[in-house]
Design a protein that fits this description.
Elements (H helix, E strand, L loop, with lengths): L2 E6 L4 H11 L7 E8 L1 E8 L2 H7 L9 E7 L14 E2 L5 E9 L2 H10 L9 H16 L3 H11 L2 E9 L6 E6 L4 E4 L4 E4 L11 E4 L4 E6 L2 E6 L4 E2 L3 E3 L15 H7 L1 H9 L3 E2 L4 E2 L2 H5 L1 H5 L3 E6 L1 H18 L3 E5 H4 L10 E7 L5 H12 L3 E6 L5 H5 L2 E4 L12 H21 L4 H22 L2 H11 L4 E6 L3 H16 L2 E6 L16 E6 L5 H13 L3 E7 L11 E5 L7 H19 L18
Parallel strand pairs: 18-19, 18-20, 20-21, 21-22, 23-24, 23-25, 25-26, 26-27
Antiparallel strand pairs: 1-4, 1-10, 2-3, 2-4, 5-6, 6-7, 7-8, 8-12, 9-10, 9-11, 11-15, 12-13, 13-14, 16-17
Bound molecules: 6-O-phosphono-alpha-D-glucopyranose.
């Protein structure tokens, strides 16, 4: 979490930094700050969002050609002006911003306190900065050398950017574990947690690797490892347009991203699926087809919404490929002593490709000899780079903090992958394989068709917006969809919501049911349809309010539910891609009706680069 931005070159740094920070607010928005050098070091910082800092600086002399900026998701110390980054060193000459956590900051702080240092914030960042300055003064070495020495003592994850008032032509940056992208312009450089701050200026970027220090001047970029050896910057071409990160007329990014799904799903299928030919082209899968088909077990690691995609994949892969699948929370997997054998395949699912827990889980499994297959949205992200093979979801930049289009693209990739393995293993009939390929091809159109009725969900949302709780129920492939629906509602509207397998509801949650409780059933037509109808009856018998997501043409459920939303009929394996969309819309409209900041829900961040 936390977004970092830097600029050095002939342009005005401040507007580039402010715009870059706004684009990175999905990474956190507890406080904002910038540091600029124009004759002397100037630091401006404030609790709250980027726009609030910008407002407070109207009329201030912020002209400079070098600067760094930060948008924070608080870890050490509450969101406040004094805990906001940049922090300045004891001498007042160095300014630093930081994304990540310095785990041994307590010990480093004690060493500095013993030497008489005083701290004005509760952050680990201020400790690291002063630790660096102490080394610089003590060893009488350059700042670059001091950073290298300091980082060898640091445990944790970080990206740091430093300005030195005595060296106004250089930004020094370093990374371990958190992302850092450097954009190469003509006589200028841009720095960011992702590539969005530099999109309109350059398409050439360098993804800095762990344990590298970047010495960035307007016309020169030097990369070194912690052993002071020069590293060759590997320049990548960005494949992203500015329009992709703008709202394009929608009120919120979340709504735009929900409505983009016919296109993003199509983009995910494009060039891969050919239903007429009966082929699925996925190079990462093809190159590793032997390991995948012979896998004794597949372990899926992920967090949040991506974990829900993993749960659906478990059902799909076990059904189609007959390979046992386990789905793990990355944060749990990394800290227990999981059994990972040679021959196991790990599938890591991550929108951002930067989630710290997922990254470490992969590293752990790699050490045990597993093959890692990454399913990632952000091209060039850390998970994409450390996986042995993988497939991008091609959903384009997702800015809304709650994941929507990335989730449906993950499902599409996972289903295609399962189909490809099943075909190779001969665990699927020709007929069913072909049917599913044609059905997948139809998904964008079906999604476009249900989106036309989005207003129906707006009305339902208004009706239930004052609820304190909600229950989401589903069976089979639609059970993880219910979990995802509950997560979305919690994230966006702060209504307490729980997802449950519909039948399991009898073992506890049914006690919550009264005439006020909305119970959302994901009840599209599948093998369990008759069963879920019984579950609906059980809720109605206790006067609960039933909102049902049903298949078009269902004549039974509308007669018993309080509210229904119909989606086009699809095979049960494909259905989750479609049935989740009304739940995304429901939580969006509930959030808007309650006046919540749906793109930046309180306390959340999109890219969780701390554990
Ligand atoms: C955060 C986001 C979620 C996301 C999760 C995992 O909690 O708010 O939307 O699902 O992280 O992120 P990843 O980028 O690994 O999919």
């Amino acid at each position: 979490m936390c977004g970092i931005v830097g600029y050095i070159g002939p342009r005005e740094a401040y507007p580039i930094i402010i715009t870059g920070l706004k684009r990175q607010e999905y990474r956190g928005y507890d406080s904002t700050g910038v540091a600029l050098i124009n004759h002397h070091l100037q630091v401006y910082k404030k609790k709250g969002k980027v726009a609030e800092l910008e407002e407070s600086l109207i009329g201030k002399a912020v002209s400079a050609h070098i600067g760094i900026g930060h948008t924070r998701w608080a870890t050490h110390g509450e969101p406040s002006d004094r805990n906001a980054h940049p922090h300045t060193s004891a001498s007042g000459k160095l300014a630093m911003i930081h994304n990540g956590i310095i785990e041994n900051y307590g010990q480093l702080k004690q060493e500095l306190l013993n030497k008489g240092y005083k701290f004005s914030s509760e952050t680990d960042t201020e400790v690291l900065l002063n630790f660096i300055e102490e080394i610089k003064n003590n060893n009488k070495c350059s700042l670059e050398e001091a950073i290298r020495i300091a980082l060898k003592r640091v445990a944790g994850a970080y990206v740091i950017l430093l300005l030195d008032a005595d060296n106004p032509d250089t930004i020094i940056a370093a990374r371990k574990g958190s992302p850092l992208v450097i954009g190469i312009g003509k006589g200028e450089h841009f720095l960011g947690s992702d590539a969005t701050p530099m999109l309109e200026y350059t398409k050439e970027v360098v993804y800095v690797n762990d344990y590298e220090v970047a010495i960035v001047k307007a016309d020169e970029l030097i990369l070194k490892n912690l052993g002071n050896e020069r590293q060759t910057p590997y320049i990548t071409k960005l494949d992203m347009e500015l329009a992709a990160i703008e709202k394009g007329g929608y009120e919120h990014f979340m709504l735009k991203e929900i409505f983009e799904q016919p296109h993003t799903i199509y983009d995910c299928l494009r060039g891969r699926l050919d239903a007429k030919e009966g082929t699925i082209t996925m190079k990462g899968v093809q190159d590793n087809i032997e390991q995948l088909t012979n896998a004794s077990r597949i372990i899926i690691v992920a967090c949040g919404t991506s974990w829900h995609a993993g749960l659906i994949a478990e059902y799909v892969i076990e059904e189609l490929c007959r390979i046992p699948v386990e789905v793990e929370y990355a944060s749990e997997f990394r800290y227990r002593n999981p059994i990972v054998n040679k021959g196991d395949v790990i599938i890591a699912i991550s929108q951002s490709g930067e989630t710290a827990d997922t990254l470490v889980a992969i590293e752990k499994a790699k050490e045990n000899g597993a093959i890692i297959f990454g399913i990632v949205n952000v091209v060039g992200s850390s998970i994409a780079r450390i996986s042995h093979a993988g497939a991008y979801t091609h959903a384009g930049p997702e800015i809304g903090v709650a994941s929507t289009k990335a989730f449906t693209a993950q499902l599409v990739v996972l289903i295609m992958m399962a189909l490809k393995i099943a075909k190779e293993k001969d665990t699927i009939s020709e007929e069913y394989y072909s049917k599913l390929l044609f059905e997948l091809e139809d998904v964008p159109e079906k999604v476009a068709s249900l989106l036309k009725n989005a207003d129906e969900l707006k009305i339902i949302a208004k009706k239930y917006k004052n609820s304190n709780d909600a229950l989401f129920l589903g069976r089979g492939y639609n059970f993880p969809v219910a979990l995802e629906g509950a997560l979305k509602l919690k994230e966006i509207s702060y209504i307490h919501a729980e997802g449950y397998p519909a039948a399991e509801m009898k073992h506890g949650p049914i006690a919550l049911v009264d005439e006020k409780l909305p119970v959302v059933f994901v009840a599209t037509k599948d093998a369990y349809h008759a069963k879920i109808i019984s579950n609906i009856q059980e809720i109605k018998a206790r006067k609960g309010k039933v909102i049902a997501i049903i298949s078009e043409g269902d004549e039974i459920i509308p007669s018993m539910a309080d509210d229904v939303f119909a989606v086009p009929l699809a095979d049960e394996i494909i259905a989750p891609i479609i049935s989740v969309i009304p739940l995304q819309l429901l939580s969006y409209y509930m959030g808007v009706a309650k006046g919540c900041d749906v793109d930046k829900p309180r306390n959340l961040a999109k890219s969780v680069t701390v554990e």
